[in-house]
Amino acid sequence: MALLPAEHRAGRGELAQVVSLVGANMFIPATALITGPILARALGPEGRGIFAAVTTPLLLASLLGTLGLQDALTQFLARRGLTPVSGLRHAAAALLPCTLVSTAGLVGLAFWLFDAPSTRHLFLILVSSLPINLAVSLLFGWATGIRAYRIVNRVKVVMATTRLLLVVGLALGDHLTVPLACAVQLFGGAVGLLAVAPSVRRHLRENHVVADRTEAGVPRAAEIWALAVALLPGVLASLATARLDQVIALPIMGARELGLYAAAVSLAELPLVFATAGRSLLLGGLRTGDGHLEQDLLIAQGILLMTVLSAVVLAAISPVLVPFLFGQDFAGAVLPMVILCLGTGCLAAINQATALCVRIDRPALQSLTLLGTTVLNVVLLFLLGSAGATGAAVASVLSYLVGLLVLAAVLRRAAPHGPGVADLFPRRETLVVLGDAVRRRSPVPRSEGRSS
After folding, report:
1. Share of the chain above pLDDT 70, in %
2. What ranges do the domains of the chain cover?
3. How confident is the model at residue 432 (pLDDT cuts 50, 70, 90)?
4. Residues 311 and 341 sit within 8 Å (Cβ to Cβ)
5. H helix and E strand count, the chain
6. 199-208 — which CB contacts under 8 Å span 24+ positions?
7. Does 181 or 212 have the greater pLDDT score?
């Protein structure tokens, strides 16, 4: 089929969106390859373990603390007629209650997680970073919903660059301590928000739509929060599947083993930069309108393939990479990293499959399924945690695998004629189509099959 010039331009624009999302997501772990070894060598395995134990709950709270509103905003902005102005207004109104609820939970969590008063006090002080990171998460949901991916990318790049410069500067001055490292990790979002503020204002001016009374009133807010509540269990479960082990592992395996495990995770999760881009594209879409799911699934298949291939490469070079980056003290992280790399494909597929559930209006389905995966993850960690970092890695991979299989079975049964988990995995014809699209710089061909 011949493509019109306008379609060629659209195709180049779509390809540029995919490349920019992947590039911004890759920039974060690329800088982490510099900051990670610096932190490991400056803090040592025990200090690195405390760093992970303190920062991980706070970073998770910045995502969970939106109470599902991040993904709900994306869905309403992309497909349910919410205007950018109204969407940003809802996000701003939600910031204070989300902060209060999350802070209350974190304060209670501090007394359960940390026996050492110094670590607990550090954690409680760093809770003050929560409003900044919640604002970043809500901004990501808003920008993804209006397909302003450049705003998302700029925040990520600025945050990563800020952390890199501060960590390197503190290390060169021999001032890099656990409290300062935690502060750098958690407060970089403030710089990112300042960097995109002009872009947000400009986008609102260029796309200003006067909201009608129905959209700006309580019924619209109630609808958004209803979807947020339905999405919240899935958000909780998805985050818990990826990070809960590091939150509760300190009393189970000790700071040293947690430090080894955190180092292994920081490398094994590098391929997930592709899956994160795929999730954003499935939620927001490449084009305006709701009839392009087949095209978005085709892109998601290629992204999942890149994720798996990069994970295999990382596993192969891990015996050399880990000691080179972190030093011989972290040699015990090699085997956990290999195990985690083997499970990266499952975790990437879960990330994209949960986005697909939201896209096809099945939020409760993905929430219930992933909650079961989370419970399994916790049980396996308690059973295998005595084996240290290796046991935690095995527990995580088994949880990913079971979660993916259960989600695939439940989704097939609930929507037998709709898209399923199998549609996220590349086939031979997928590789041919994607290869042709890249070589010709043309849009991904539209399928005659189903659409959302």
Report:
1. 81
2. 5-440
3. low
4. yes
5. 16, 0
6. 199/148, 199/150, 199/151, 199/154, 200/88, 200/139, 200/151, 203/84, 203/146, 203/148, 203/151, 204/84, 204/85, 204/88, 207/84, 207/146, 208/85
7. 181
